[in-house]
């Protein structure tokens, strides 16, 4: 996608398609999320809020794995989340304080209207045909004040025979044929009270997923951020044993915390990944391990190893 933004009184062209941004003045810049210069990330995201766009970086990795599509799209039905989990990456990714992150910002119009307008104009958005949509990376799509926008959008996308995946800690979709996702990283009550006190309990989330599964719907679970022993001591098998019924599992390490970057944590994640992989194979569950997690346990130095080589190995490890 190419966007035009005013910067220091002048409009410049930015390409929102890779990790590296190219300004028209030729100066490449980097950002950690969305491929845009740091100071412009929110401005750009707010412009596409409620609309179809092509995710990049970590979001692209997640959407590809869940939707099983090479060029997935996403819609952020809002920006921010007031559930306020202690480990939430949202404030970091959106470069704002936790307080600001918990103030939800809404699209100018209903996402259904914005997406309908995009798709009636063309089935190709940002250079790729819209075949699958991930909802949402920058909010929980089932927050009470957003739910009324999320469900009609999903219904419309499914009527257009577009694959849809949701990710939430609150609910699954009532629309049939959706890839319903829930994040559950621990079943411990004390973990929930410490890190996710405003979210439904992990058991309720599990029940919500199970109900959808027994109604014949596709379900998936995200075990991310998975705590290492230095953060929270738990036996991952307890959680996995409760998730035996899902169609897809994704695992990712706890990031941005020095306790998850030690040699001890590396060994710990090595064991967790092996257990996770064995469990999924035994139960025939499609699964994916985040590349950052694999890099960490394998001690990969990205500066020394070519990107293409890493991608090839990841695909191989994940059976793609
Ligand atoms: S539910 Fe998700 S988006 Fe909301 S605060 Fe928790 S981790 Fe962040």
Structure overview:
The chain has helices at 41-48, 57-67, 90-93, 98-101, 111-121, 144-159, 189-195, 202-214, 236-242, 263-283, 291-298, 307-317; strands at 2-7, 10-15, 20-22, 28-30, 52-53, 73-75, 124-125, 128-129, 132-135, 163-168, 179-183, 218-226, 248-253, 286-289. The protein is an alpha/beta fold. It folds into three domains: 1-38, no CATH class; 49-77 and 85-159, no CATH class; 184-320, no CATH class. α5 (111-121) packs parallel to α6 (144-159) and α10 (263-283) packs across α11. 40% of the residues are buried. Mean pLDDT is 86; it is low at 1-40. Bound molecules: iron/sulfur cluster. The site of iron/sulfur cluster (SF4) has 9 residues, from loops. Residues 81, 83-85, 88, 90, 140, 169, 199 line the site of iron/sulfur cluster.
